[in-house]
Structures are given as C-alpha cells and as structure tokens.
Amino acid sequence: GVSIGPNCVVKDVSIAPGEVKALDGIVQSLFHLHGVGGALHVTTTVGAPLVVTARTYNQTAHGTVGQFIPAVTDAEAVGSVDRSLQIVQAEESVRYRTNLGITEVSGQPATVEVTVTLPDSKISPTVQIPLAAYESRQLPILTSFGLGATYNARVSVRVIEGDGRVTAYGSVIDRITEDPTYVPAQ
To answer: Is the pTM of this model over 0.90?
Structure first.
C-alpha cells in the first residue's frame, strides 16, 4: 500500500518480483490531489526487499527544478531515546536559503525539538514542533527564527516527546537558479 500525508489517502499498487515501476507525478496521477505535499509512506503486505526512490520538483518556464530525497526506514529514523540528527552547513544569505524537512515515519505522533547552533555565538535558538503520525513539514528554518545573514549553521533535530520516529534533511537553495542541494541529516 502507498499512503500520503497525515490524513493518509491509501492506494494499492502491485509490483511483480524484479519489476521496475515508474509512477510519475504520483500526487496528482495516483492520489488525485493538487496543491499539496508531504511524505509518501510505502508498505508491503509481506516482507520483501523493495527499493523506492523519489524526486520532488517544481515546474518552471525553463523545465523542472527539483531534488532527490532518499527513502528512510523506521530503523534509520530516530525516536525519543536516540541521538539528535544533525544538518550541517545551513545558510541564509543573499546567495542561499535553507529549508529544514522533518517527517514522522512510524505512524506515531512525536514532538521534535529543533535547535540552530550559530558559529561564534552563545545563542542557540530552539523551537518545539509537534508532528502527527506520518506528518511531513518543510520550513525555512533560519528565517523562521528571525535570523539575518547566517553562514555554516548547524541544525539539530531530536524527539523529545511521543513514540514517533523522525527523519530530517536540509535543502540549501540557490537564490538565483533555485537549484537545491540535499543535505542529509547525520
């Protein structure tokens, strides 16, 4: 089964052993949704090795601008007893902006604490963000704290409440070309 977003629209897709299936524009073509985004949750009815890849993009007058964001399993995500996830090299400047993506992957709610560590500063802004089961959010992390020009910041994400497990990533976007760079949480 394939589901999307916190409201979980579910669709079944059959894939034969060894088959490669491309589902282009899946939010509109499979789920018949428009103007929405979120995480795609993929499950199998029986244990089976499965490779899932995706590309998120915007259509522009000059083609698409997008990036690949790899699939994450429950085991790769973190919960309340695990370490913090770290996203490095976040920047907010006239040249680049940074978005933070966070997603709950286990089907349980979680509250995450997001902390931005600024180079050469004793100030580390922090915010708590509640996530519903399978909820995905992307936010302009440095501007959401009202920070001005910021270079080489580190963003920490940790679960502080709930049984959910989360994953995170950074997306550093070139302000001129809109070309994004995926920064995996470590």
So the answer is: no
How many other β-carbons are positioned within 10 Å of the β-carbon of residue 153? 24
Using alpha carbons, select from 20, 11, 66 the residue that is nearest to residue 41: 11
Q: How far apart are CA 170 and CA 186, in angstroms?
A: 11
DSSP 95-129: SEEEEEEEEE-SSS-EEEEEEEEPTT-S---EEEE
- What residue ranges in the chain does DSSP mark as E strands? 2-4, 9-11, 40-42, 55-60, 63-68, 85-92, 96-104, 110-117, 126-131, 136-139, 150-162, 166-174, 180-184
Side chain identity, residue 41: H
Q: How would you classify residue 64: left for phi > 0, otherwise alpha for psi between -120 and 50, otherwise beta? A: beta
- Residue 140, exposed/middle/buried by CB under 10 A (0-12, 13-18, 19+)? middle
Residues counted in the chain: 186
pLDDT digits (tens, 9 = 90+) for 79-101: 999 999 999 999 999 999 999 99
Helix segments in 37-90, DSSP class H: none
